[in-house]
Amino acid sequence: MEERKYLQTWKKYAPVIRLHLKKSNNEEQQFLLNKTDFESAGDRGKSGYTFNMLIENGKVVNNISGSAVARDLFETIKTDEYMKDFLKEKSVKINVGKAFMLTIKTTKISSYKEAVAEEV
């Protein structure tokens, strides 16, 4: 399995993702990715490039191990200082659908939820 083949593609999108993350504080954000960028990086065949990722307080809380596209996006996010800082005390859902539409939805993690998480 070839590792990190989508990293350069995501790094190219980093400025746009940064902007949409910031805007996602107010409302859900969507933007279209260039299908060719991903296909030239690696052929996903029938499995496609779709994924759902849930990041809470800077950590992925769902299983993205089966998606190199999602893993490389998270790697890009966590190595960018602005994006890494943005994720603190927030719940961010990022997904890419079959039409290569990237959607970002952000909610603030409540202090109650944080307290419960610390007790567990």
Blueprint (SSEs and pairs):
Layout lengths: L6 H17 L5 E4 L2 H7 L9 E6 L2 E2 L7 H11 L2 H6 L3 E7 L4 E8 L2 H9 L1
Antiparallel strand pairs: 1-5, 2-3, 2-4, 4-5
Helix pairs in contact: 1-3
How does this structure look, described?
It is a single chain. The protein is of the alpha+beta class and 120 residues long. It is 42% helix and 22% strand. Strands 1-5-4-2-3 form a five-stranded antiparallel sheet, with helices on one face. Helix 1 (7-23) crosses helix 3 (68-78). The longest helix is centred in the first third of the chain and has 17 residues, at 7-23. The termini are far apart.
Quick rundown:
The protein is built from 5 helices and 5 strands. With 120 residues, it is α+β, with helices and mostly antiparallel strands.
User: Could you give the order of the helices and strands?
Assistant: HEHEEHHEEH
Low-confidence stretches: none
Q: Say how many strands there are.
A: 5
Number of helices: 5
Termini gap: 36 Å
Largest sheet: 5 strands, antiparallel
Strand content: 15-25%
| Classification by helices and strands | alpha+beta
Radius of gyration: 14 Å
Strand order of the largest sheet: 1-5-4-2-3
Helix content, binned percent: 40-55%
Shape: globular
Mean pLDDT score: 88
